[in-house]
Amino acid sequence: MPRWVANAVSGCYRLTRSQHSRRIQFLEKGRPRSPVEREAPISDATRTLFVPKTKQDYGDNPIDVRETDTYVTEYVRGFVEKWDELIDWSQRAKSEGRFFIDVLKARNKKSVLDVATGTGFHSVQLLKAGFDVTSVDGSAEMLAKAFENGCQHHVVLKTTHADWRWLNKGVKGKFDAIICLGNSFTHLFDENDRRRALAEFYAALKHDGILILDQRNYDRILDEGFASKHKYYYCGDQVVAEPVHVDEGLARFEYVFPDGSRHNLNMFPLRKNYTRKLLRQAGFQQIHSYGDFQEEGEETDPDFFIHVAEKSYGTN
Ligand SMILES: C[S@@+](CC[C@H](N)C(=O)[O-])C[C@H]1O[C@@H](n2cnc3c(N)ncnc32)[C@H](O)[C@@H]1O
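# S-adenosylmethionine complex -> structure
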């Protein structure tokens, strides 16, 4: 008899022989397993519980789906695996250049909270540039992919699974900067959620911290229809990304991949001045909006806006 079983039954001398053997059988059930036994296959029941969905499901009327929580089920495994085809890391790195690094360095920022990590593009770029990055996302599926991408780029991501609306419950400490990039803020459908998320971002920043938040040029999409130079952000030329429905409360995009697979995202079309107003009302004192990485006014018809919002009144 192994010593741990003997020790466990040592107080049982008053038991009958059959009681004794039943007790040993009971204890055997809880004994430590050998590595081989521990690697037993996962049952189907467990698999369904823990392995995420692979198909998006918007129900019978997809354009009715306008809830903030939708993002969690939109980034299903099949889509996440293809996301990097859509954004093409090397093209994106070329088109963005040093923009974010320069904005952060010019303000002497060192610790960065990437609240919309996605598959990790900006977390990896900033880690490589020497910033202290913490990577957050509300989609566990995205974070897993980001961590894997980090390993491939020889960096280890510090990841935290958290929703922006409760950010400071999951993330401790204050940061020099927060980035919310890749048109992510558009996932919030309810104005209260937008205000809550911005208040959480504001609270997670040091007294002179900055928030860098970007968005599609929805004004143009709403007022003139969709056109994209496809030069920034979603640079993969193999993927067609276009809106299939647009109104003041919804921009539903469809992404068609080279293998014919299709995925969608339902997003709230943020007007530029509305986002700026929300940032100001959240407490940010200075807001500088760039168009496609150019100074305001230099790019008249950008695909994307990048807002740099500062807590302090200081210099720009
Ligand atoms: C469009 S992806 C962009 C990812 C990445 N920043 C990029 O540029 O490739 C948006 C990301 O924001 C995350 N997200 C959306 N709403 C969120 C929320 N309320 N809380 C936390 N993460 C959220 C999604 O899970 C997704 O990974």
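# post-check
The longest helix spans residues 17-29.
The chain has a mean pLDDT of 82.
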